[in-house]
Design brief:
The chain is mainly beta. 13% of the residues lie in helices and 37% in strands. The protein is built from two helices and seven strands. The structure holds zinc ion (2 copies). One zinc ion binds at residues 135, 137-138, 140, 147, 149. One zinc ion (ZN) is lined by residues 135, 137-138, 140, 147, 149.
Length: 171
């Protein structure tokens, strides 16, 4: 599980590799399969600084061509854990600091890994940077090749000029 034992941990740097089913940390759609989290923990006298990097495969739909595609989404975060005797819960929410009682045995990364993985999902989903999208006329996926409507396309800015030329020819 995504937990690190911190009791009796001496000061220094520790590296961890985690892998498990995403359902174990409450992640589902559009993610699938396993999560892989690398955690670097730096322990000091009264605090822990933790950097976590998580890779999970996501099933996404391209905004341009509506094709389904898979992408590995990487999310990163840094969390600071402070050991203090009297923990006041209300302070916990403003910044990424978690207060730990000095007797704390383990820290659980699951919720943070989940939250940051969900935040890492792209707003704009593209199957590739240069996805050509669908033809607005016939709906064909232009990544599979050009469609037949191609020649009829007239840049609307030239339309008045074209009409003028036709008119002049008629005169
Ligand atoms: Zn696309
Ligand atoms: Zn077309």
């Amino acid at each position: 599980m995504l937990k690190i034992k911190v009791s009796n941990l001496t000061n220094g740097r520790y590296d961890y590799d985690f892998e498990g089913k995403i359902s174990d940390i409450n992640i589902s759609d559009p993610y699938e399969g396993n999560y892989k989290t690398k955690a670097v923990l730096n322990k000091f006298d009264n605090q822990i600084i933790l950097d976590a990097t998580t890779d999970i495969v996501a099933n996404l739909v391209c905004d341009r061509c509506t094709k389904e595609f898979q992408s590995i989404i990487t999310s990163r975060y840094r969390m600071i854990y402070l050991f203090i005797q009297n923990i006041n819960d209300s302070e916990n929410e403003k910044i990424d600091i978690i207060y730990l009682h000095p007797e704390t045995d383990k820290i659980d990364l699951s919720e943070d890994v989940r939250d940051y993985a969900l935040l890492a999902l792209p707003m704009k989903k593209l199957c590739s940077e240069n996805c050509k999208g669908l033809c607005p006329k016939c709906g064909k996926n232009l990544n599979d090749g050009p469609c037949d409507c191609h020649d009829e396309k007239i840049d609307p800015r030239w339309e008045p000029l074209q009409k003028l030329i036709v008119k002049n020819k008629l005169n």
